[in-house]
Each structure stands twice: as C-alpha cells, then as structure tokens.
Amino acid sequence: MLLPKKVKHRKWHTMRRNAGKPMTETRGINLSFGSYGLKATSACRITSNQIESARKVIARYAGKSGKIWTRVFPDMPYTQKPAEVPMGSGKGDPQGYCFQVKPGRLIFEIDGIAETEAREALRKAGTKLPLKTRIVSRAI
Fold this sequence. Notes:
The longest helix has 15 residues, at 48-62. The chain has two helices and seven strands; from the N terminus they run ββαββββαβ. By secondary structure, it is α+β, with helices and mostly antiparallel strands.
C-alpha cells in the first residue's frame, strides 16, 4: 500500500470542484515510459488500496518480462468519522491516503509484453478503479 513518509498537515481540506474551471488534467497525459497505458476519462478520488489492487492485476499479467509504471501517488489524507457519531464535534480521524484524478490522467503504463496481454491486463485493472478508463497506446 502506498503512503507518504511524512506529511506537513494531518488533515487536508476536501478540495471542492469549481464549476467555472475546466475539470481536465494538463500533467501526466502522455505516455512517457511504456507502450500502453490506462487513462482516466472521468474524475474521482482513488485510494491507495484501489491503486494497489489494480497494480497487482497488472503485475500478474506482466510476469518477469513486463515493466509497470504507476503514474499516480496517493499523498492526500482522507478522514472518516466513526459509525453512529452525532453531527458536530469536529473532523474525523485520518483513514488513509488518496489521489484526486482528473480526466486525461494516465494512471498506469506497461511495456515488455504482447499487445493482447497488455490490453487485457489494463482492462482488468480498470475494473478495480472507481472511475471510467480507456486504454491508450503509443503512436508508431
């Protein structure tokens, strides 16, 4: 499970969406390392557990010859209040770390395996994530 070594603040703000600002990504939108990638087409917060479960699916297909790159890192803490606690009395305790994904962001890249295997691995990894994704390949 991915988590930062140290954080400046234990609890962050929720990061509200601005209706006037376009909700698209400008960083991490092109394939930089691998031949195939998993790109987000919707916005969502993905937790470190979800990233890890998707990475395990890809690693199972990649074997020893394939190489995997994870292009996101969960560094934003999220909180949750215990069950059956009344409203008020402050913010909940940190539960884990997540990454806020915007449309267009590459989440995983893979190289070193056949195209059919890479597409199947990325398709299965996309089902583990709570957002819509598509598979992209390098233009040759």
